[in-house]
Design brief:
Blueprint lengths: L18 H6 L7 H5 L20 E4 L2 E10 L5 H8 L1 H7 L4 E5 L4 H9 L5 E4 L1 H9 L4 E7 L6 E6 L14 E4 L4 H12 L8 E4 L2 H9 L5 E5 L2 H8 L2 E6 L9 E5 H6 L1 H20 L1 H12 L3 H9 L5 E2 L3 H16 L16 H7 L9
Parallel strand pairs: 2-3, 7-8, 7-9
Antiparallel strand pairs: 1-2, 4-11, 5-11, 5-12, 6-9, 6-10
Length: about 375
Amino acid sequence: MFTAFISTKLPKQNTDKYFLFHLFNFKQKVSLLITFSLLTLPITLLGCNSSNQTSQVSSVGNQKKHITVRIVYSKLGPLAVIRKQGTLEKRLKAQGNSVTWHEFAAGPQSLEALNANSLDITSTAESPVIFAQAAGAPLVYISTTQPSPKGVAFVVPKNSPVKSVADLKGKKIALQKASVAQYIIVQALKEVGLKFSDVTPVYLPPPDANVAFSQAKVDAWIAWEPYITRIEEQGIGRILRDGTGLRDIGGFYSTTRQFSKDHPEIIKAFLEEVQKAENWSKNNPHELAQLLSKEVGIDVTTLEKVHARLDYGLLPITNEIVAKQQQIADMYYEMKLLPKKIDIREVILSPEEYAKITPQKLTSKQ
């Protein structure tokens, strides 16, 4: 899952282990955006301001004439390629529809917007959708991606005496709560016989974690691209352990159940363009870096190194994906990070529904 690189100043973090349940709970009448300002926000490749407008539909009688599809904004990855090249806009315009791109500080914020009917399609890592489902968000998975295990890593200061994950026992580790970093730290500690309680997690969004790491206020940081490459380029840190062998599932494209029922043809067009962007990115690394360099604020050479650590490819929702996601959800419940058990199949579409939205060469099996 591609992740955010933003400079937005985020608020202090709340370490309440049930915060995401309260974040996404429909029954709360208070604005979820206000609630979110008090909580930890996993940063994905998403920006920092949202729109509360609903999809605009012009109609004559019951005949829909115009749909404005609201999609999460990304600075890296296939969504950035689609937006920069304008391929989806052109395609939907031919059908009388349009696209708007909406920035958020985090994957959970984009899911909150999905929940509030302020967004139609989003993209997050494996963990935010689990917590959103536990809180009752009406989301459904429409596709998944390659895991990109080298795109997330434990980094330590360049001269740190820490030589392995086992050496992190009793150390302070910066990470984004309920993000892919949460999953990676649990997996890595388990691999060396340690428990989550054996370390001291310091929950910080990437911009704040970057500062804490640079000032040696934490012993390690579970970062993602492009932070990893920048840390190496600046000579302030080194990779202790990347996600190889730890991250075994990719991110997810999600929508609301209602949108999937009302506009399967739009979702299919979206996924087809994502698939094309994935393929183009894989086959044109230099052109990809040139396309995104200016907006991201990273030189082409460095951005090529970032992209080299990422895997490309849109994948269908299969039985194996569902089972793996269920395993992760059960793990969070056992850790008491989820308030209740969830059944991942409740956010999976039927084979007939997937047949309507799945691009050619992809299949989706229950």
